[in-house]
């Protein structure tokens, strides 16, 4: 446990809830309910493509340094929007088929989806102001 905490501090990752048996952390705080990890293609179809709310899709990888910076930054801003937008996290190593289908050639890649369609996209890291503008455009604020 001490090693895990030291590693989280070293990598500047936010502390999260219990770790699932496959090694991924799942958040338990109220602010994390808007963010979820995609489990498979069917889950992506149900929770992203068929979502009545706009969805930000974060294509990332465990080994990606910029992803470790962008992910928590984006999660924080999505949580602030209190359910107006959802955030789906897709690990490209686990879901290569989705990465290919959505033409992800580099990580991090973030898609903005509304009614099952990609309406905006960016590749790479962004600062908080740029992310806020991206989210506001998605929700029409």
From TrEMBL:
Gene Ontology annotations of biological process type: cell redox homeostasis
Cited PROSITE patterns: THIOREDOXIN_1 (PS00194), THIOREDOXIN_2 (PS51352)
InterPro entries: Thioredoxin (IPR005746), Thioredoxin-like_sf (IPR036249), Thioredoxin_CS (IPR017937), Thioredoxin_domain (IPR013766)
Alphabetized UniProt keyword annotations: Disulfide bond, Electron transport, Redox-active center, Transport
Residue span, Thioredoxin domain: 24-140
Molecular function in Gene Ontology: protein-disulfide reductase activity
This protein's GO CC annotations: mitochondrion
Annotated CDD domains: TRX_family
NCBIfam families xrefs: thioredoxin (TIGR01068)
Family of this protein: Belongs to the thioredoxin family.
Annotated protein name in UniProt: Thioredoxin, mitochondrial
Native source organism of the sequence: Cnemophilus loriae
Lineage of the organism: Eukaryota, Metazoa, Chordata, Craniata, Vertebrata
């Amino acid at each position: 446990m001490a090693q895990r905490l030291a590693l989280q501090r070293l990598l500047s990752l936010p502390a999260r809830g219990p770790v699932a048996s496959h090694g991924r952390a799942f958040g338990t705080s109220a602010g994390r309910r808007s963010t979820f990890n995609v489990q498979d293609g069917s889950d992506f179809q149900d929770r992203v493509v068929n979502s009545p709310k706009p969805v930000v899709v974060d294509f990332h990888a465990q080994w990606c340094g910029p992803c470790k910076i962008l992910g928590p930054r984006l999660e924080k801003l999505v949580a602030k929007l209190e359910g107006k937008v959802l955030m789906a996290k897709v690990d490209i190593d686990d879901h290569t088929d989705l990465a290919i289908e959505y033409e992800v050639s580099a990580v991090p890649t973030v898609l903005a989806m509304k009614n099952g369609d990609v309406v905006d996209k960016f590749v790479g890291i962004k600062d908080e102001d740029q992310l806020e503008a991206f989210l506001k455009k998605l929700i029409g604020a």
